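Reviewers of the previous submission asked for a worked example of the structure-prediction workflow described in the proposal, so we include one complete record here. The input consisted solely of the amino acid sequence. No template or homolog information was supplied to the procedure at any stage.
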Amino acid sequence: MTQTPSSGSPKNLFSRPSYKESVRIGDILRKETVGGMVLIAGAILALIWANTPMRESYFALRDFHFGPTLLGVDLNLSIGHWAADALLAVFFFLTGLELKKEFVIGDLRNAKTAAVPVAAAFGGVLVPALIFVAIAAGSGGGTELLRGWAIPTATDIAFAVAVLAVIGSALPASLRIFLLTLAVVDDLIAIVIIAFVFTDDLKLAYLGLALIPIILFTVLARYLGKFFAKRAWAAWMILLPLGIITWIFVFGSGIHATIAGVVLGFCVPVKRTDGREGLGLSELFEHRFRPLSSGFCIPIFAFFAAGVTVISPDSGGGGLLTDPVFWGIVVGLVLGKPIGIMGFTWLLTKFTKASLDKDAKWGDLFGVTLLAGIGFTVSLLVSELSFGLESAHYEHAKVAILAGSFIAAILGALWLIPRNRGYKIIAARETRDDNQDGIPDVYQPGDKD
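From that input alone, the workflow returned the following structure tokens.
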């Protein structure tokens, strides 16, 4: 098929970004890989502890309550609740920073470029949700089961990138960038769902009070960026208290407190405010706080969220396997995610002038969509919001998230490992230098391009 060099020429999907964007995303991927490994370790430790004779001590620790009443808000929460609401706020703060950077200086600032991951992420949310609803509604379990429709819609970027790093070191870089960008948009959709779907009793007074520290935070971050950049202690002594006050008021408003982190992340300037070239406070904060999030906050949340007893005489295994919630989540993650992402991406190539990047193949993309079925951090959070800690459906949902994520990781590995091996062979051929002249044989003079 002929191509015209005009503006109507085909546009590559998931193509390589600019050099600066590649460096920035590569740095994020390396940090997410380490965080994913620690996350996996925390989840495994929780599963082991919750399935030993000492399981009661795990649940006693998770359900231990403490906390004061501050600014009129009761903060007497369990440790598990603190992990989900407070520690994850740090993770969502970084998510807010990343989202804003993507829309200000990243590839998502261009509407045509943004349309690709947005469409793919939307398909990866819509299809799993529809699968869950179909299974739950078909069981005749009533509206209570339908509350879990959003659980299989999330992709855990740290977990998925960690798996991809282990099994796909030679895969095209565009696939890793696509997975990260997809997860960023996926996080944005999850934030909207958490903010608007799981807010039952909105207290506008607390929401109005939250605007005061948010405005102060925004003004200080914008006009004192150089001050906070040079003095690391200043952010902890000045901005952190404002963040905590914002978190308290948002918690009291009835909106899930992690949304406070997202809002504050959007308040940090991406570009320098003094007119000079270079990135602003957002990049610096990301470097400072990502190790805290990846190395502590998310693993601790995973440790207290993933613990579920599956090996016990009275664990209710029969109830688990007959619960539509379990099958809706597993099928949604394992099948819904790849079908949704692949389907919507194919529609883009079918009905627009877009095409896959020359370095990527549809088979490679399919393997990445399988890994997108790893829904862990946000899925565990949404399951708690959907059913509550005391519900049997919540326990079944946790097992389903773990099972679905594990199956997705295994299927993705089985699919991508052979393809990764093939890319290694190609790379070895391209770098082969039999005559040891420092020039790869494929580039010897006289060879045709």
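The beta strands are 11-13, 65-66, 69-70, 73-74, 77-78, 354-356. We consider this example representative of the routine output the project will generate in years two and three.
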